[in-house]
């Protein structure tokens, strides 16, 4: 598929896909005879993963390390899993912080509601 289709399918914009490709984050993208990128389903699945890793706050450096390990093959699965587990733990801590923040905001809103009665 073309880059615009890959963008639609993955949630990323075309410029971000080009940036990720230039940074080596995307597995080999083939080119057609006219030089245009042709994205496979594997590429789109990978781009979708990158979208969500970035959206969930994974630093670019860690994403690059993850992509390097992926390119090295199945011998790196344990290390890739560790990266994802670490990220999941960070997300859990962040989720807990956001829940506490929501509780505080709700309490403050209740106080304001009492003042406005």
What does this structure look like?
By secondary structure, the chain is mainly alpha-helical. It has one domain: Multidrug-efflux Transporter Regulator, Chain: A, Domain 2 (Orthogonal Bundle), CATH 1.10.1660. The protein contains 5 helices and 2 strands. It has a two-stranded antiparallel ribbon with strand order 1-2. A hairpin with a 5-residue loop joins strand 1 and strand 2 (37-38).
CATH architectural type:
Orthogonal Bundle
Oligomer: single chain
Domains, number: 1
- What's the β-strand tally? 2
Give the distance, in angstroms, between the N- and C-terminal Cα atoms.
59 Å
Q: In one word, what is the shape?
A: elongated
Order of helix and strand elements from N to C terminus: HHEEHHH
Q: Describe the sheet with the most strands.
A: 2 strands, antiparallel
Q: DSSP strand (E) fraction?
A: under 5%
Write the layout of secondary structure elements.
Elements: H1 3-10, H2 14-22, E1 30-31, E2 37-38, H3 41-55, H4 60-72, H5 77-116
Antiparallel strand pairs: 1-2
């Amino acid at each position: 598929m073309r880059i615009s289709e890959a963008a639609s399918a993955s949630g990323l914009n075309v410029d971000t896909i080009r940036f990720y490709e230039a940074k080596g984050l995307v597995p080999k993208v083939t080119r057609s005879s006219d030089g245009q990128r042709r994205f496979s389903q594997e590429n789109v699945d990978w781009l979708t993963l990158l979208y969500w890793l970035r959206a969930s706050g994974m630093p670019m450096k860690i994403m690059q390390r993850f992509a390097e390990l992926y390119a090295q093959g199945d011998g790196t699965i344990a290390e890739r899993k560790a990266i994802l587990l670490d990220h999941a733990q960070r997300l859990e801590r962040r989720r807990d912080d956001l829940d506490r923040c929501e509780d505080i905001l709700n309490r403050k809103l209740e106080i304001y509601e009492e003042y406005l009665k």
